[in-house]
Amino acid sequence: MIKLHGFSASNYYNVPKLALLEKGIPFEEVLSYTGVGPKYKPEYLEISPLGKVPALETPEGYISESRAILEYIERAYPEPSLLPATPFGVAKVQELSQFIELYFELVARRLIRNLLTDTPPDPAVLKEVETGLDKAAGALPRLSTFEQFAYGDQFTVADIAAILNLPVVRNVGKAFMGKDPLSRVPGLDAYCKRMEERVHVKKIRADAASNRPDFMAHLKALYGI
Which of 61, 58, 12, 59 is nearest to 32 (CA)? Predict the structure, then answer.
């Protein structure tokens, strides 16, 4: 059985976890936090070169990075597919997924430490984050109407990217900008409500909530956060 290393409070970990759940693939979860080094699990560097989560343990060896893990899962377990049937459709799903990761999640992530520690961000950084998120929100409707799924008429990896990353943007916006940066994206609110009703999304949310206190205790013990 394949094993997924990481922790459920991480949206990066939950990307392959949700894919495995949606495909109905049996897997074992192995609790591993970030922060490897002299203080914590230096041996994990043999699994993930930079000590990041997630990592997937397969019969052939280990794979790190969410995007690479998704590729393995899709090729090793092609049914049910999380990609469209046409090359163009695959490219558009990957385009949307990467757009969400690069221009929403990575931008908002600059304020995650402030969110976790309930501290005010640097005003200059906050301005840069707000500008970047507003620009991405203005462009997102050009890639998806969110009428049914993120792209096309089936659940794909683009939905996984949206479900797991866009709530981070909303939390950062509400905490530090006094607004939801995504509120003006047509169709997105109804889409997110539909996705939250999916049984495996509910499991992801429940597992994340259950793991969060332990994760915060880990951060406090390791970094004093």
Answer: 12
